[in-house]
Amino acid sequence: MTLIVLLGAPGAGKGTQAAVLRDRLGIPHVATGDLFRAAIREGTPVGREAKAYMDAGQLVPDRVTIRMLEERLAAPDAADGAILDGFPRTAVQAAALDDFLGRRGSRVDAALLIDVPAEDLVDRLSGRWICQAAGHPYHATMNRPRASGVCDVDGSPLVQRADDRPETIRARLAGQLDDLNAVVEHYRSTGALRTVNGLRPIAEVSGGLLEALEAGTAGVA
Ligand code: ADP
Ligand code: AMP
Q: For residues 129 and 149, what is the distance between their CA atoms, to the nearest angstrom?
């Protein structure tokens, strides 16, 4: 089992890079934000509980998030591992993931931090457009689709996320960065942390992440 955690502030490029790693490593991309957005679309109890927190730019409570993630990791397509994007986001979630994997004789192989300074995140988030069908991310100036307003991968229309409005962006950055630091420290202490400069063009960040994996993780590459 290969379990990779992608860490970074909102807008750092986790979803963008997770797609590259998934294609390269052949394990699924599991994003808790995508799971919550799907739950909201489907009107499930988890979606109803998550929506108010997401709209306010706050983290969804650990209890709900951990249960949802564990159910996702128990699915057959994750038997060989997964690339986690947006989880863990608190020290409690990081400890729960260690316990969950430990019960399966496994562990987090690498925690890859995509490092982007706070002042660059607002531009990343306010220019982000995602496709309606699958959430593939684009940017109005830095990562444009081939045809305006249409996803390169699946042809679905591009939309802005409800929480990418300026006031919610500010709330997310103000409220989530301390928790990110706690998670970074968790993986520094386990020895799994690798940091990659996320300010470079997308392909260069991908190269940096793959190098970090090859350098530090037995059984991956
Ligand atoms: P996250 O999943 O960490 O919130 P995304 O992958 O959705 O971040 O990226 C946020 C925005 O920044 C998107 O609009 C994406 O197209 C853009 N982006 C991602 N990586 C880069 C990069 N290296 N350079 C410029 N823009 C990027
Ligand atoms: P994302 O798509 O990763 O930017 O996440 C969007 C929103 O979903 C976040 O601002 C949180 O409200 C919620 N969310 C996603 N992942 C988590 C998590 N691991 N813990 C708590 N809330 C989360």
A: 9
Residue located nearest, by CA, to atom 2 of ligand 2 = 33
pTM of the full structure: 0.96
Residue pair 18/6 in contact (Cβ under 8 Å)? The answer is yes
- Residue 215: per-residue pLDDT: 85
Instruction: Give me the residue spans of the domains in the chain.
Output: 2-28+75-117+176-215
Q: Which two tokens stand for residue 77?
A: 């397509």
- Report whether residue 168 contacts ligand 2, using a CB cutoff of 6 Å: no
Q: Average of pLDDT values for 123-128?
A: 97
Cβ burial, residue 182 (10 Å; 0-12/13-18/19+): middle
**Architecture of domain 2-28+75-117+176-215 in this structure:** 3-Layer(aba) Sandwich (3.40)
Residue 186 and residue 94 in contact, taking contact as beta carbons nearer than 8 Å: yes
pLDDT band of residue 218 (cuts 50, 70, 90) is: very low
Match 């797609």 to its residue by tokens.
Answer: 19
Residues 6+ apart with CB under 8 A from 160: 128, 129, 130
Q: How do residues 96-115 score in pLDDT, each as one tens digit?
A: 999 999 999 999 999 999 99
Distance in Å, CA 103 to ligand 1 centroid: 34
Give the 3-state secondary structure of residue 195: strand
Helix, strand, or coil (residue 153): coil
96/29 Cα distance (integer angstroms):
19
51 catalytic per annotation: no
Structure tokens at 31: 């994003």
